[in-house]
Every structure is written in C-alpha cells, then in structure tokens.
Amino acid sequence: MHQSRSIPLSLAAPIVFFWASGYPTGALGVAAAPPFLLTAVRLALAAAVLAVIALAGGAVWPTGRGLGHCAAAGLLTHATQFGGCYGGMAAGVPASVTALVISMNPVLTAALAAALLRERLSRWRLLGLGLGVLAVLVTLGGQVAAEGEWNPAILLTLLGLLGFSAGGLYQQRYCGGIDIRSGAAAQTAAAAVVIGVIALFEHGHVTHWAQAGAAVLWLVITGSVLGVSCYLRAVAVGGAARASALFSAVPPFTAVLAWPLLGETPSLAAVLGIALATTACVLGTRAETRQPTLASTR
Question: Where is the EamA domain (predicted)?
C-alpha cells in the first residue's frame, strides 16, 4: 500500500504564504475597485493563464456533460467563494476574519461529506466540527462587540465558505475523470462569465487603477497559478488530509500580514478564534487509523 509522506517545509511554507497573502491583498483590491469587477477580472486572467498551461501540456478538454460539471464546480468553488469573500471585505469584514471563516473549509467539507455522501465522521472529526463552529462564533462575537452592531456582510463570507466546501465535494463526485489542467481552466472561465455578468449591474468604479491592478496581478500569480500548483504537489506528496491541514496556519499568518498592510490589529477574540480554528482543522483533517482485520492481513 502506498504510504504518503510528510510535506516538507520548503513546500508547506509557500502554500501558507500564498493563501494568507491573498486576503489582505484582496482587501486592498476591493478598496480600489468594485468587488465583483475585481473578481471577474481576476478569474478571467486566471482562466487565460490556466488555458495556456493546459494547451501547452496537451491536456484533453472536457466536453458535453463533463464540461457542464466543470462549469457547476467552478460556480461553487470560484464564483461563490471569491464573490462572497470580496463582497464581504468590501462591506467591512476584516481580512483576518475572512481568512478564519474560509479556513473552516476542511471541517465543513467533512460535515457535508457525511450528510451528502454518507462518509463516516469519527469522534475526532465531530470534535473538530464543534470547535470550528465555536471558533467562528467567538470571532464574530468579538467583531460585534468591537463594532457595536452586527455586520450583515458576514453572510457573504459564510456563503463563500459554503460554496468552497460544496464545490470541493462536487468536484470529487462528478469531475474525477477530467484532466485537472483543462478542468481548472474551464471552471475558472465559467465562474468569470457569471461574475462578469453580475459586475455589469454593480455600482461604483475603480478609484485607484495602480492599486487594483497590482492586487489582481498578485492574486492571479500567487493564488491561481503558484498557490494551486504548490497545493496539488502537496496533495501528491502528503495526501489530501495533510495538505488541507496546512490551511489551519493561514488565519494567523493573515492576521500578521493584515496588521502592517491594512492596519487591522488582531483582537483578543480573533486570537482565540484562530487558536480554536487551528485545533479544529487539525482534528477535522487527521488521518483515520484503523486496526487491521484478519481479512486485510491475508
């Protein structure tokens, strides 16, 4: 049986940095341009880059039903996730809170897999799910206490989390036989079209072209190309559970980066929420250990 290896620091560190930097960079982007316009441009450029990579590598492109499944997965994973995240940040949700909510993806995915795909949830994963919910509640409670009122824009962030998790499950169930290079390009292109249509009805305009352009460029290069490539390599080296557990380190690094870039000083509630989220993700993505049976040893 193939045994997955631990993920080396030289691979883990770039993944955490690329993902963590995306949240404050996204906040800088939506401060200079409307969120859905920013998202549409990012996805369109990313789709173009991924398409070039797929064509250069001779990837087989999905057609028919496979193409439809790619489009559906893209709407969930990219359009809903980034539209929700950037829309929430544009309406005042801090980048560190956004990172914390999205870091709950492994835990929520495990819960959705149990409900929709009948996958078994161990006691450790149930504990991780509970801690994950507590982490979000503690952080949001701290934000309400600091601002004196509930920010309804957090619902967009939660929608982004739901889309991210549901998209992963949809990909697992319906897109398994599709080339990941051409599939990623098709998914991103479909998401770009939908978000682009929404952006046509969006109010506001670009207030700082240089800042918006730099933010989009960084998000495309580090998030859509380098970040995804490193993550897929980590899955190949250490397995999906170990790779997804790296996201537990994203919220604290996001908080560190958001401090000098955005002036967001981490609150005590946010620090406590990050600690709970880290524990939740570790428990929610831990590998299951099973005792060998007589039949399995024959």
Answer: 12-140, 152-283
